[in-house]
Here is the input.
Amino acid sequence: MSRAYHVAVAPLATARADVQQQDHVCIEVGLLPILGEDTMRQLLLAELGRDGWTATPDGGRAWTSPDGLTATMAPDGRTITLTMTAARAVSAAARTQQEADAAVHARADAAAAVVRREATVALGRAEGDVRAAVDAALQRVYVEALQQKARSLGQIESMQRSESADGSVELTIRVRA
Here is the structure.
């Protein structure tokens, strides 16, 4: 004996949302007043330009890493803001669109905390690298500024440069006044 079965398949309603969170940190940049403040700032901006930072419309500099970190130097050259954005797509399916929307909203709220934590962790990892790159640029700026200052005092007789194992630079400039 055979029985007939009737199976009704109702299409599922789906919903999708993109969750995006970001975190940022601000780094103070202090320049030694070897030359005038504006001259030192211009030297730093030029040095960062040689390191691949692009000019911004407001006169600052910006750099973006392959993993999405954005570093932006303010036009006054005193601060660098690091911003990391992380994103994730969430989706849900249910019998009605209203249920699907409610489920995706709940999943988006839960994913937001995870995505923000991902952005913060990535920012923490990248901050040290950016600080090291800016410190290296600052060191080159100081060498150039000292050379310009020495030239303004008289004729440079000799210049000796030595670097220690920790990366510090010693520059000895003899000037004939």
About this structure: Strands lie at 13-28, 54-55, 61-64, 70-73, 79-94, 155-163, 169-176. Helices lie at 37-50, 97-153.
